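S1.2 Input.
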Amino acid sequence: MPQEAPTPSARRNELLEAAYRYALTHGLADLSLRPLAEAVGSSPRVLLFLFESKDGLLRALLARARADELALLDRVGQPDRPAGLASAVERVWTWLAAKEHRPLLRLWAEAYARSLTHPDGAWAGFARATVDDWLGVLAGFQTPSERDGEDGAVRRTLALAVLRGALLDLLATDDEERLTAAVAHQLALLRDGASR
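S1.3 Output.
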């Protein structure tokens, strides 16, 4: 009979939440255990014991960030989920452009890039998983005929490329007005393509 993974301790959960708040401010790329431990009221030894290694801690933080991202994206589509990809892109962009989401999105961008340049270890699979997550969210907004049609996946992929490119540009420049106009232009093209 397979053994279930042990339930994380309350202290581990508490330190994970504190480390996640720290990562939202300081990032993960140059994470050093000593300053992190000091900031969260622990010691490097305790962190290594609870997370088994620095990579284990990084994996836990990436999973925590991904869970936050998915929960927030899920709320974008609830409870009055619009039908159609253009409506989804409009709604998701509004969420992405909100200033209060920038810390999470900067952490996401950092983890995404590290997953591409360090495909093994703690970062392994993060970028691919987020692509699948986002494509799944966008597919959920499409009507069955749009989603399952010949070009449904192509339209989702284009929508995701526009959103991701605009998000990276926004994080780099903070030029929300210009990027919102660009996304609106793409929305017009999506709507036009859907009507043909």
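S1.4 Remarks. The longest helix spans residues 54-76.
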